[in-house]
Structure prediction request, 564 residues.
Amino acid sequence: MDKHWRERVEPFFEELLPEFEENLLRESAQLAGLLESGALEDLGRIAHKIKGSAGYFNLTELGQLARTLEMQCKAGDRAAAAASIETWQALVGKLELRSV
Amino acid sequence: MSDEGTGPIFVVDDDPTQRMILERWLVREGYEVVLLESGEACLEALSEELPSAICLDLNMPGFGGMNTLEQVHDHNPMLPVIVLTSDDAVDSVVQAMRLGARDYLTKPLDQTKLLTTIANAVEVGRLAMRVSQLEREAEGKGYQGIVGNSAPMKAVFRQLDRLCVSDVTVLIHGESGTGKELIARAMHTYGSRSRGPFVAVNLAAVPETLMESELFGHEKGAFTGAVNRRVGRFEEANRGTLFLDEIGELSHQVQVKLLRVLQERTFQRVGGSARLSSDFRLVTASHCNLEEEVRQGRFRQDLYFRLAVFELELPPLRQRRDDIPALPRTFIKQMGEGRVESVSAVALERMMRYDWPGNIRELQNLIQRSVVMCNGTEIQLEDLPERVRAVAKTNDSEPAPEPEETDDTTLEDFSRRLLVNALTKHDGNASAAMRELNIGRTRFYRMLKRFGLEGKIDELRQGN
Prediction:
């Protein structure tokens, strides 16, 4: 994944990019806080959502990481979830997301 | 909601990206789409709309997808629900199918799979309903002994088929004696609430001073004569159907209270402080023109909108003369009178000419009288009352009257005018207009679309 990922998005989904990026930015900002407060269910739900939508924008790596994070949250594995969140932030950083 | 047409597709997902993607695919395919953010919003929308199918995300916060599915299937077992889930939630899929889901799709969704699944679900739902209609028509009978083979009654039955698999609030219009309560009862008996109570109230027969107590119940000592607590009709109808006949008879004061109950689904008994809740389907009826009552200021506009989510018109008997021959046979059978078995052809012919201002109730009373008066096994012309015997030769079934040429010739015109007025009054502020009309967001935007008023909001705002 790199900052040119938008060029690989199918034309049909291009118009949805601004909303997707806005949501991803907002939700990514919540991850660490939710983990710290122990809100694993909410954290898992965000991961589940991104897992379901990342594929539309060819963000395969992010989708797979979201699946991993979701499973870690369901298992209650905070340490593993923390590591995944760190990886997540690095991945999202590479995407250079834009806020509307 | 059209008589024959399909309803929209509900897309229920808390993820805005998923909602947008599904909407685009479905709209492009020609479907009408309603977007809903939660299970709760879906259940509320079902009281205002009958979709052809629902796409339901299983993983949603709050009430959740599984609970929503269960509720939907309980109240609308024939409504196809397609669940949307992740590819590793096998247990969820199994549970969802057991709860009545028609099919499932995994995210990220594939456009072709989605459209094929939706098309199949809509078609299966439509065919199931059509089979039900055909079975009924082939047997020559309707619901619960409601006789009707004429074209107008077949149209009523088609609407009834859809209403029975729905929880929408219904307002039945029809002259006195056309069978409004029978139709309401059929909606209950053939619907998902059949195990619950059917509570019928003729509001015209309730004294004004007792109306609130009748509907809301009262606590012991609430007023002089209230020696015991009394459970009201709202409570009685919990998990069932409440039928309020002659809804136009309500005083302004009770209209306000009824509106609040419909909005909040809670109420208080007269003299009580506890807020009670009741889960009922509301069916109302009126023989008078409620739109006119609203125009004259005698009936609240916001309450009317709440009641008239779906309007069903029952034809008077003179507009369905083809059904007359079967009705006497039905009434004779119901009387269990062994001696009289039939009606002579001559008597029947005269009955078919008569206009029946009292409709089916008048015909039923006449048959009961004639059975008593009849000496033989067949009701003859001379057994009929003078007013029927003497009727002159007339034309066939009276056609449905042509609408008068007035400014508001139809409910559509009337509803459109109310919407435009509300938007204009509030300078295009949609939220304010919705509050004034007392309708939800989903219904408001669907009405805008139906009347081609989508640009009206911007137009009004730019004008300021």
